[in-house]
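2024-03-11 09:14:02 INFO receiving multi-entity request
2024-03-11 09:14:02 INFO entity count = two
2024-03-11 09:14:03 INFO echoing inputs for audit
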Amino acid sequence: MNLPKDLRYTKEHEWVRVKGAEAEVGVTDYAQGELGDVVFVELPQVGARVAQMKSFGTIDAVKTVGDLFAPVSGEVVAVNTDLKDDPSLVNQSPYEKGWMIRIKMTNPAETDALLDVNAYEKVLGAHA
Amino acid sequence: MSFVGRSEAERRAMLERIGAKGLEELWAAIPEAFRVRGPLPLDPPLAEYEVARRFDEWAERNADANHYACFLGAGVYDHFIPAAVRSLAARSEFATSYTPYQPEVAQGTLQVIFEYQSMICELTGMEVANASLYDGATACAEAAHLAEGATGRRVVLVSEGLHPHYREVMRTYASAGSFDLREIPLEGGTTSVAAVKRALSPDVAALLWAQPNFEGLIEDGVGLTEAAHAAGAYSAASADPVAMSVLSPPGHDGADIVVGDGQSLGVSMSYGGPLVGFFAIRKKDVRRLPGRLAGVTVDLDGRRGYVLTLQTREQHIRRERATSNICTNQGLMALANTIHLALLGAQGMRDVAVQCLEKAHYLASRAASVPGVSVHHGDTPFFREFVLRLPGPAADFIRAAQAKRILAGVPLSRFDRSRPNELLVAATEKRSKDEMDRYVDALTEWARSQAGARVEETAWRS
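2024-03-11 09:21:47 INFO inference complete, emitting structure
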């Protein structure tokens, strides 16, 4: 399983790539593997406000639907529109082409509450 | 644990767990006046034959549409239902089939739903229809809910031309926090595009209107839809399925959601239910569609097959985050709709609609010639139903007409106490010229008696 060391994680299996005041968000390799073929991703519009650990969208697989949780609070400044035409990008490339939204953080200190790769591995260990 | 029934031991265990001494303690909150002690006050038992006779006697006292000329409407209409509808819909393969979760054993049911959806799309001019909902009223509430989710806005404008009962159901949904309702009063009998424009704001999710409206009048579907769209709101219409055979269906007017009640399509009036709601949308919102959706696909060998599709939106998978808490459909009624539509075909539906239109207009123009009687907003186009303004209480005329085996209409006082002298009258294709002429005769006679009563009253006063 691919778990990049430079990312932060949530126990709900989102990853976060912090770039200055912005945070890029997607779901982890583990999440996409558990969901199976992703058929639809419902994302907010640019300009929407999201709050830490509140749902910002949903992800549909063939047999289930999951909520997507915002790892940090802020304003959505970009949405990956490629997922509309090809939701399977989440399966093929969860950390790159399968990114979902970019959030302009209102409180960058919130990232302190996120997991580093070791802590996230422990979460996954508990699932195994 | 057994699905029904509880043993004495189980009952004791449950009471013990919640700390109650006995069942009496749980019922303590029920006032004595509402408690039944001893046996229920029922008549002694009867033999099967005696019961059947008693029911027959009761049934014969009804003023029903089989023995009376029925001019009732207000959302439920007396259309002809070919005998084949009931005999096919009652086949046990349909009538007893369980919910089609297993497509491999439910192809017949799924194909019916698929055909039903296709017919509703054709009728409404829309792209996707679901497997049906409970009735037109809940379909309207679900339309408001869909628009709220799709736009991220909370306010739903509802024309007062929408059936008062539908608006009541919507208020119930709104009271649960789903959306905020604002009602737009009618102007001159129809929904004013200017009034809608004044009410629209950036927090409006949708405008809900009816075609034709509750009083039978035809709305400006294009004008209302364009106004809603200009403000970024959805246009949602509750449309009559028979009217859509001759009027421009709201889907062709640009509406985003078209709903309505399918009772007119092969479902008997049955004292007002069960009804069946249809629900049609644009493809862009397919993942917000409430309820069930049947799709067609091919199996591994390339053979055609039907399945329930996009089930991840539904309650049985998504639980409390489902697009709607409606996870079933009105299967038998939708089946009746499908058989009815298939039997009549597009031309048959048009023929029915044209007869309704012509008969309602014949009756309205003859009624309007009765002294003291007028057709409310008589210059506005209407379809199968219209409001008569009478020279006295509508309830009086209804009684007088009933004595002549005519069900004269629905009094508007039932919905609005400030309108005691107004009567909502519907004429379907079933009404004969003789029945309509008898209606006008009864109306003439009654109106004359009202005029006489007024003269007497005036004489007494002076």
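2024-03-11 09:21:48 INFO post-check: Chain A has one domain: 8-110.
2024-03-11 09:21:48 INFO post-check: Residues 80 and 119 of chain A are 28 Å apart (CA to CA).
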